[in-house]
Amino acid sequence: MKNILKFAALLMPVILLWSCIEEYRLEGEAPTSDQAGFSFQPTSESDNILQFTADGDFFLMTWDLGNGAKAEGKRVTGFYPLEGTYTVTLTVYSRGGSNSFSREIVIERTDPTLLDRPIFNMLTGGVEALEGKTWVIDSLRLGHFGVGPNPSQNGDFPEWYQAQPKEKTGSGMYTDRYTFKLRDFEFDWETNGLVYINAAQGANFPGAFDPGVGDLSAPVTSPGNLTWNIVEEPGALPVLSVSTPSFLGYFAGGRSYQIVRLEENEMFLRFVDQANDALAWYIRLIPAGFAPPVDPQPEPENPNVSFSLNDLVGNGEKTWKLKPAAGAFGVGPAPGSDAFFPNGNDISGDRPCLFNDLYAFNSNGTYTYDAQGDIFGEFYMGVASEGCQPESNLVGTAGAAWASGQHQFTFTPGTPTEFPKITVTGTGAFIVLPKAFNGGEYQQGPPRANESVTYNVIGYDAATGELDLSIDISGDGSVFWNFTLIPSGGNEEVSDGSFRLQDLTNNGTQAWKLKVGAGAFGVGPAPGSDSFFPNGNDISGDRPCLFNDLFIFSQNGDFEYDAQGDIFGESYMGVATEGCQPESNLTGTPGAAWASGNHRFSFQSASGNAKPKITVTGTGAFIVLPKAFNGGEYQQGPPRDNESVTYEVFDYDPETKELTLVLDISNDGGVWWTFVLIPAN
Description:
The protein is mostly beta strands. The chain is built from 6 helices and 46 strands. The chain folds into 4 domains: 4-110, Immunoglobulin-like; 118-287; 309-487, no CATH class; 501-679.
């Protein structure tokens, strides 16, 4: 079986970090080195995993753990699988300055069990590979080297430029070899006399010259005695580092690489240009001697896709939307591929505001885009933040033309050698992704006036109604955006009272609270049920601090939680007792983020049989019950950083204004929380 390790964020932690900020002082004088003292002790897991505790309490306490890892806080944990002596340094800060204290930590023996980790084994070949594992640049593959924006905009891949196979021959990039050994974390760097470097780094390499393939090459010989290290931290890609003066593939000023993907026969790395931090470089490596499967030759363009104008417009007008599934929205090196992003993942839950958009084609040649009140905003549009947000945020921006509106379209039937084509025309006309056009992407708005964008119909299933569109943004057939649309189901009525964004925000700002009465707060085996708890009982008298909470939604996408000074505390929050108590009891606990605060929200309108949804986003963002999230409940704080929680509108009565929200915490439809809200006024 092929061993694969893919990183979207954190997998097996190599460095465990946590901090506890207790009472601190901002003194007028700088602390002394004695005040920066600390103690340490082994953990129950291993003598090679140490917990460090600062002696004092300061505004900021930073640690260099001597093993390549950094940390902050009063208490942190360091991971030391190999025997040796490590110098650990604590630096403390007060209003008057800072000071540091260092001490040597002796690890008496190597703990082999700590070395037997998937990420280590994939990189080095494991303990049985005495000579390590040697990697080389995958020179035969499109995109083995390239560059994209920093921060990434559509996933971690070389969005702006991808090298063709063997494009950098003669630079030294393809002759270098990189061997990683598990024993003593040794790294062998074989340059074969020549390395490839960014032009901005030329002054640091005597004898650098133009190899004729862009940038510079330089004569370099490895000094030997090099090492490697991997640091993993929560919420981030693992970082692979190699010691000075070595580097991997292409030198852009740094020696640390984010591991985007690590597989048995592939390593895909990302690193930021140190001379221009708006650029992120990418390299793809394979084990030396590995012969990757030959990419199949593209089929001749003889698609013969059976799709007609009648299929597009139906009986006069037909409305389409993105299919909420993996593969429905993505970018890759070929039509229909999403290998660059999101690489097989279903992102409909992350971007609900994208999957509720409607695209209507009329037989009279008009085309209408309806954002359903919200958009997935990106900086190129001119909005202040990225992510789901009210469509009104486009007003007054450079991207205002990408808002809901009417345009024109034409349809070109397919032939045995040409795909059918849909062309939308108008300032800001697009299907699914505003920034994508034939041969490129907008880096910033506004869109060009009266622009036409053409999409190839690369597939159509008349039975399911699935329509596959593709657009080449590279101009040379190397990068394609791909979308799968389905009929929206028209304007069918749903049993939610046609709840709209304006109902939620009252066309401005609206505060909601729990309805006082039985059935307003409960959990059961189905939406709307409270048979698990409290089983038909009215608990508003027992928990008044819960029923006075305010949940405030503003049309600009702001969401505020106001506890009204008290909370219903539970042990998972870190409070000392359970029950109604002052909100201030959350201060200093792991659940502090669940206190009153400001977050963001997005709204997904009803469409077809899909009910409206409200998504709140932010560290500690919730409606009614802090511990409940999609697919589970917190057993202890703190909440995950910048988490989104989506609530379905189960029912809405426009006369009484009662709004019923439900949340599946089981992920299989077996356990649901139900809340009935009413306007606070």
